[in-house]
Amino acid sequence: MELTTLWFLIVGAFLIGYFVLDGFDFGVGMSLPFLGRDDTDRRVIINTIGPVWDLNETWLIVAGAALFAAFPEWYATMFSGFYLALLVILLALILRGVSFEYRHQGKGERWTRWFDRFIFWGSVVPPLLWGVAFANLAQGLPIVPMENGGWLYEGTLLTLLNPYGLLGGVTMLLITFTHGLVFVSLKTMGEMRERARALAARVGVAAIIAGAAFLVWTVVQHLGSPTLWVIVLCSAVAAVALIGAWAANLRGREGWAFTGNATAIAFALLAIFMAMFPNLMHSSIDPAYSMSITGAASSQKTLELMTWVAAFTMPLVLAYQAWTYWVFRKRLSRDAIPAAAH
Which ranges does the record mark as transmembrane (predicted)? Predict the structure, then answer.
C-alpha cells in the first residue's frame, strides 16, 4: 500500500475515533434539558463524561495535525473553504468546555442555568455542522486548481447548506444524540438509567430513518464510483449496527447498544471516505479539477517519518485511553453526588 493511501486511511481513523468518542460527549450534552429534572440530575449527567470529555476531544487535534502534515493542500483548501463553519464549531467547543468548568462556581441558579444552556448548544452545533461538512466532502464541492498550485474553493457557507448536506448534518446530530443517551444509561442507575434508555429508543427511531435516507442517497450519488461496492458494504454494516443498537437498547443491553452505535458511526464515516476515494475533494465544477490524494500529499520522506512516529505513539495513546475508561467504568447515581460538588 502506498504511503499516501495509508495516511488517507490513518487520518480517516483519527476522525472516526473522534466522532465515536466525542460523539457520545455531544449526545450527553444534548440530553441535559431532557433528562435533567433538577441540578443533581444534571450533575450526574455531566459527571458521566467528566473524566473523559477533554481526552476525547484530543482526537480532533491529532486528526487536524495529521491532516496538516500529510495532506497540506487538503488542509488548506478545506479550512479556507469551510472557515465560517469551522469557526462556529470552534466557538461552540470553547463555550462548551468553559461551561463544564464554570457551571459549578456557586454563583446561583441563574448562573448555572446559563452554562447548562451553553453546554446544550455547544453540543448541538458541532455534530450538526460536522455532518454538513462531511456530507459535502462526499458529494463534491466547487473547487478549481490555481495557477500557482493548490486548489480554490469558490462557494460560500450557503453552498454547504444544500439538501444532502443538511441531511448529513441532521443524521449526525440524531446519531450522536442517541449515542450519548445510551452512554448515560450505561453509566447511571435507577430512574436516570430508565429515562435515558426510553428517550434513546424514541430518538433512535428518528436516527434510523435519517441514517437510512442519507446512506441510500450516498449510494445513489456514487453509482459509477470505482469504490461503489465498498460504499454499499459500509452503508449496510452501518445500517445493521444502528438497528441492532436500537434493539439492544430496548432489551436493556446498554453495552451492546453503545457498541452498535459506535460501529454505525464508524462505518457511516467510512462510507463517506470511500465515496471521496481516490480523491480527497471532488470538484462539482469539473471532475478534472478534483484534488487527488497524490497531488495533495506531502513528500515521501515526510510520510515515512510520520509513519514511524505513528507506529510508536499510537499504541501508547490507545492503551492510555483504554486504561482511563477502565478506571472510570463504574455507574453513577444521585446518591454519589455531594451537595456542594460538581
Answer: 6-32, 74-98, 118-144, 164-186, 198-220, 226-248, 255-277, 305-328
